[in-house]
Amino acid sequence: QVQFVESGGGLVQPGGSLRLSCAASGNIFRIYDMGWYRQAPGKQRELVASITSGGSRNYADSVKGRFTISRDNAKNTMYLQMNSLKPEDTAVYYCNGHGSPWYRKDYWGQGTQVTVSS
Questions:
Q1: Do residues 8 and 23 touch, judged by C-beta distance below 8 A?
Q2: How far apart, in whole angstroms, are the C-alpha atoms of residue 88 and residue 106?
C-alpha cells in the first residue's frame, strides 16, 4: 500500500512562487504515473499536472508555462514548482497516481493549502 504526503504550501503574494513536495512511502513509486490535483472552495477537484514513470509531462491549460512537475525516484518524491502565482491558483493541492491502475481514491491525503493573496 502506497501513501502520499503533501507539503510546501503556504500564503504567497500574486506573482510569487512555491514548490510543493509529494513524498511517497514504499519502494515502487518509480513505476507510478503521478499527478498533482487541486480543489478550490466550492469547486470540483481537478488535475493540474501529470508525469509518467518515464518522465513525460502534461499540464492543464490554466497552469501551462507557469508550473513545472518533476520527480526524483531515488527520493520517492514528486514536486510541483509554481511560479507567477495568481489568486485563482488558491486551492488545496493533492498528489495521487494518474490513470489506471495508479490512481486510487484511498490514496488521497490531507493535501497542502496554497493561498495566493495580497
A1: no
A2: 27
- Counted residue by residue, the chain has a size of 118
Q: Which three cell numbers stand for residue 83?
A: 511560479
Q: Number of C-alpha atoms within 13 angstroms, CB side, residue 4?
A: 31
Q: What is the pLDDT of residues 62-76, one digit of tens each?
A: 999 999 999 999 999
Task: Copy the grid coordinates of residue 76.
Answer: 520517492
Grid look-up 486551492 returns: 91
| Identity of residue 105 | K
37/97 Cα distance (integer angstroms): 10
Task: Tell me how far apart the alpha carbons of residues 116 and 16 are, in angstroms, rounded to a whole number.
Answer: 8
* Nine-digit cell string for 67: 508550473
Q: Read off the pLDDT of residues 22-39 as tens digits, 9 standing for 90 and up.
A: 999 988 899 999 999 999
